[in-house]
C-alpha cells in the first residue's frame, strides 16, 4: 500500500483520527444522476436498435459497455474529512492527506477547478472547488488543518490560494444568509 493512497499515511493518524466529521452532502444525489444518465442512455440505445430491428446480443453488449463507460466518467469522487485529514475516494480507490501536515496547496484551473493538496508524507489529493464551497464543514476541516500547518512552518506554498478560497466561501455564505433572510 503506497503512502497516501489508502488508510493511514505512514501511521500519522491515530485510531481516533479516522472518524468522519464532514462529507460532501451532494455526493448521493450526484451518484443517482450518474446512474440515471447511464441507464437512460442504455435504454434509449436499446429502444432505437429494437425499433430498427437490429438488436442482437453483440450490439446489446456494446450498448451496455458504453453505458458503463459513461457511468465511470460521471461517477463523482466522494470527499470526506475528519480531524487532521481529508480524503477523496473514486472508483479506483482512496487518497488521503493530513491537513495539519500540509506542505503545498495549489490550484488547477479547467472545466472543474480543483485545489491540490500535498502533505509531508508525499500524499496528494485533488478536491473540486465547488465541493468545498458547497460544504462548509469540509472547508472548515481543511482550513483548520492548513492553519495549523502554516503555524508550524510546514505550509511552504499555497497560502494565497487558501485565502482566496476563504474569501470566496465567506462571500457565498454571506450571500446565502442574506437571500434566506430576505435582505437581498
TrEMBL record:
Name of protein: Uncharacterized protein
UniProt organism field: Streptomyces achmelvichensis
Lineage: Bacteria, Bacillati, Actinomycetota, Actinomycetes, Kitasatosporales
Amino acid at each position: 500500500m503506497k503512502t497516501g493512497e489508502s488508510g493511514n499515511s505512514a501511521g500519522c493518524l491515530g485510531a481516533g483520527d479516522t472518524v468522519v466529521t464532514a462529507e460532501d452532502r451532494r455526493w448521493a444525489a450526484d451518484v443517482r444522476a450518474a446512474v440515471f444518465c447511464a441507464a437512460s442512455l442504455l435504454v434509449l440505445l436499446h429502444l432505437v436498435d429494437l425499433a430498427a430491428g437490429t438488436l442482437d446480443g453483440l450490439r446489446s453488449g456494446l450498448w451496455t459497455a458504453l453505458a458503463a463507460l459513461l457511468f465511470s466518467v460521471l461517477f463523482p469522487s466522494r470527499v470526506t474529512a475528519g480531524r487532521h485529514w481529508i480524503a477523496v475516494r473514486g472508483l479506483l480507490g482512496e487518497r488521503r492527506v493530513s491537513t495539519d501536515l500540509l506542505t503545498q496547496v495549489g490550484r488547477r484551473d479547467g472545466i472543474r477547478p480543483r485545489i491540490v493538496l500535498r502533505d509531508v508524507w508525499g500524499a496528494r489529493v485533488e478536491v473540486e472547488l465547488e465541493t468545498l464551497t458547497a460544504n462548509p464543514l469540509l472547508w472548515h476541516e481543511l482550513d483548520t488543518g492548513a492553519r495549523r500547518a502554516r503555524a508550524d512552518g510546514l505550509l511552504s506554498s499555497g497560502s494565497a490560494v487558501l485565502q482566496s478560497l476563504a474569501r470566496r466561501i465567506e462571500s457565498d455564505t454571506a450571500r446565502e444568509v442574506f437571500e434566506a433572510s430576505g435582505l437581498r
